[in-house]
Design goal:
Blueprint lengths: L3 H9 L6 H31 L2 H14 L4 E12 L5 E11 L18 E2 L1 H5 L8 H13 L3 H10 L6 H27 L23 E5 L8 E5 L2
Helix pairs in contact: 5-6, 5-7
Length: 233
């Protein structure tokens, strides 16, 4: 026997009869699921900010890691981009260099990336105003695409709305951070003693790395788009 409520719910479901209908329905459900996931992520971020112990520990760690004295400028509003493409504004602690107590050369002008930091966000891996998973997704499409424009178009299909400057900032920042991690890993590997029982012990080993392909541009006359061709670096 069919429940009346079940029958009513089935009648409210959208009618699909074509592949295009199912495509649109899937895309709609994907967007709804992404927004719901973003809301759950935001709730977790807000919960962390309401935990006094975590906030104090994050501020303490930030002061210890910074070579210059930091001054607490209170809580500021920051807009961040979540994995589902939602931009949310949250209030988070903000620290800035205390130039009055800093030693050495004084840099009072605000730098390109600012002169402060958000300790709680950085403790969660939120840098350049994007969450860790969002950064990973943006970086992946940036690497796969042949240009920033193509990367932006690819990200738009996944619900991300970013401009060239934002994409470039995240890409450069990720590259710099990855380079630091790579150098640290290589430095640590060089300190590991080599066992004399390994197959390569006492042998000279040459390692080749595929550099892939890169597009280089050749500028034409003024007003014309420059041509590109893939070359091997």
């Amino acid at each position: 026997m069919t429940n009346k409520n079940d029958a009513s719910e089935k009648n409210q479901l959208p009618t699909i009869s074509l592949p295009e209908d199912l495509w649109d329905l899937e895309e709609k459900h994907k967007r709804i699921a992404a927004k719901l996931a973003d809301q759950m992520t935001l709730d977790s971020i807000n919960q962390v900010h309401s935990t006094d112990e975590f906030v104090k520990e994050a501020v303490k760690n930030a002061r210890e890691k910074n070579s210059r004295p930091l001054i607490n400028k209170g809580w500021k509003l920051v807009t961040i981009l979540l994995l589902g493409g939602t931009k949310v504004t949250i209030s988070t602690p903000y620290l800035r260099v205390n130039w009055k107590k800093a030693t050495g050369r004084k840099h009072r002008k605000r730098g390109k990336n600012g002169s402060g930091m958000y300790p709680v966000l950085e403790a969660l891996g939120i840098k350049d105003r994007v969450t860790p998973a969002t950064r990973s997704e943006i970086s992946l499409h940036t690497v796969q695409a042949a240009s920033y424009k193509e990367a932006i178009d690819m990200l738009k299909r996944h619900g991300f709305s970013v401009n060239v400057s934002t994409l470039e900032r995240i890409a450069v920042s990720t590259f710099q951070e990855d380079t630091i991690l790579r150098d640290a890993a290589l430095s640590a590997a060089m300190d590991i003693p080599i066992s004399p029982d390994t197959p390569l012990a006492g042998k000279r080993v040459r390692i080749l790395v595929d550099g892939g392909r890169v597009r280089t541009g050749a500028f034409k006359k003024r007003g014309q788009i420059f041509s590109t061709s893939p070359t091997t670096p």
